[in-house]
Design goal:
There is one protein chain. By secondary structure, the chain is mostly helical. It has one domain (3-216). The protein has helices spanning 3-39, 41-67, 72-100, 108-136, 138-148, 153-157, 160-185, 189-197, 199-216. Helix 4 packs antiparallel against helix 9 (199-216).
C-alpha cells in the first residue's frame, strides 16, 4: 500500500471514529436529559396538587372571613387561611414556572443554571416559609373548623386556647430551628439541603452531572 493510500485510509478511520464518538455522546446526552426531564415530573405533579390545595384554602378562607366579618377573631382566622392558600398557589406557580423554563435543547451548563435557580428557590424561600406555615396554620384551621360546627373557642375558653396554641406553635418552630442548627453543626448540612430541595431536583442534577463528566472525559 502506498503511503498516500495509507494516510487516506487512516484519515477515513479517524473520521469514522470521530463520528461514532459524536453519535455515542449524543445518545448518552439524550438519554440523560430524558432522565432529568422524567425526574422532575413528580415535582410538577406535586406542585399541581399543592396548587389545588391552595385554591381550596383560598376559597374556604375567603368565604369564611366574608361570612364572619362582624366577629374579629373569626375574621382574622379566615384571612390567615385565605393568605395561606394564596401563598400555596404562588409557591406552586413559581415552582412550575422554574420547571417549565428549563430548555433541554440548551447547553448542559445553561440547564444546570436553570436547575440551580430551582434549587435556590426551594431551599432559601420555599422550605423556610413552609416550616413557619406548618407550625402555625393549624391554629386558624382548627378554629374555623370548630366554628363551622357551632363551637366558638373564644366564647367557651376566651384567650386560653389561643395562648396555648400559639405557645405550642412557637415551641414547634423553635424545635425546627434547633434541629436544623444541630444537623448543620454535626456536618449534615448537605443532607439537610438535599431534603429541602427534594428528590426530583437531585435526580435531575445527578443526570446532568453525568453528562458534564462524560463530555470532559
Amino acid at each position: 500500500m502506498e503511503l498516500d493510500d495509507f494516510k487516506q485510509a487512516w484519515q477515513g478511520l479517524d473520521s469514522r471514529l470521530e463520528r461514532q464518538e459524536t453519535l455515542q455522546l449524543g445518545m448518552f446526552r439524550d438519554g440523560k436529559l430524558d432522565k432529568a426531564r422524567r425526574g422532575l415530573r413528580p415535582l410538577a405533579w406535586g406542585q399541581a396538587l399543592q396548587l389545588a390545595v391552595g385554591v381550596i384554602f383560598a376559597v374556604w378562607g375567603g368565604s369564611f372571613w366574608v361570612d364572619h366579618r362582624q366577629v374579629p377573631h373569626l375574621l382574622i382566622c379566615g384571612l390567615l387561611v385565605h393568605l395561606c392558600g394564596l401563598l400555596f398557589i404562588l409557591s406552586a406557580a413559581r415552582n412550575l414556572y422554574l420547571v417549565q423554563r428549563i430548555d433541554y435543547a440548551a447547553p448542559v451548563l445553561e440547564i444546570q443554571r436553570r436547575l440551580a435557580d430551582l434549587r435556590g428557590w426551594r431551599l432559601r424561600v420555599e422550605a423556610p416559609a413552609n416550616a413557619v406555615i406548618a407550625c402555625f396554620i393549624w391554629v386558624p384551621v382548627l378554629w374555623m373548623s370548630l366554628a363551622e360546627h357551632g363551637f366558638d373557642l373564644w366564647v367557651y375558653d376566651r384567650a386560653g386556647f389561643l395562648i396555648w396554641s400559639l405557645s405550642s406553635s412557637v415551641v414547634g418552630l423553635a424545635m425546627v430551628v434547633l434541629a436544623v442548627w444541630l444537623m448543620r453543626r454535626m456536618g449534615h448540612a448537605r443532607a439537610l439541603e438535599d431534603s429541602a430541595v427534594g428528590h426530583s431536583v437531585r435526580k435531575a442534577e445527578a443526570a446532568l452531572d453525568e453528562i458534564a463528566r462524560f463530555e470532559q472525559e
